[in-house]
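Changelog note: in this version the structure field was regenerated for every chain. One regenerated record is shown below for reference.
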Amino acid sequence: MGLGEASARGTSMEGDCLSCIKYLMFVFNFLIFLGGSFLLGVGVWVVVDPTGFREIVAANPLLFTGVYIILALGGMLFLLGFLGCCGAIRENKCLLLFFFMLILIIFLAELAAAILAFIFREHLTREYFTKELKRHYQGYNNTDVFTSTWNAIMNTFDCCGVNSPEDFGESTFRFINPSEVVPEACCHRNSHLGEAGFGNREECLLGSMLYRNNKGCYSAVVDYFEMYIYGAGALAIVVLTIELFAMVFAMCLFRGIQ
């Protein structure tokens, strides 16, 4: 009799634990679903917005790329949250297994990206960017992805070159534009006149330090993102931890379903 009661109590506790995991997983994935829906909504709104914001984004390669990253991330989170919610609430082993595999693939992709970033970290040096800028930057060719991206960086961060405007000396840009010392993207702009309002474009192109941005983009970008580095690192650890718990919850629920 005692053994039967102990067995029943154990079964009841196991059922309560399984139920707790089920609802925790549902709440967790519902939040992921809401986050993915929000990102998808923002991305779609920017792409189809009829008021002209789409043209602004399309003209800036950094913003253009960022919008599609947001769309891809939103779609991925939307799908993950949906699969997790349905798998948990319906106790569907196929959905839970698919959810687990998807999380595992994302986790391995992130791990591979971290390893590749470590292996190729030497390609993120000042010397590497300077060499590439001298070799490939053309100045005003907006059809060239490398050139348009550098124009966007210099316009966004009010900088010039990798280290300084002197980076354009003996470069492809100077070969194509022998009469110009720096490209137009390096020139000071009057904010009240809009993007086309230069302080003194002619003097800037001739190399006048008064009318050009003299700070290198490497330092400008590093300074800008320095405040986010620790936050990004902490967020990455949190995301990886959540993914590990999500896989554990999914497998526990998968194995607990009869």
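Spot check on this record: The longest helix spans residues 2-48. Confidence is low (pLDDT under 50) at residues 1-8.
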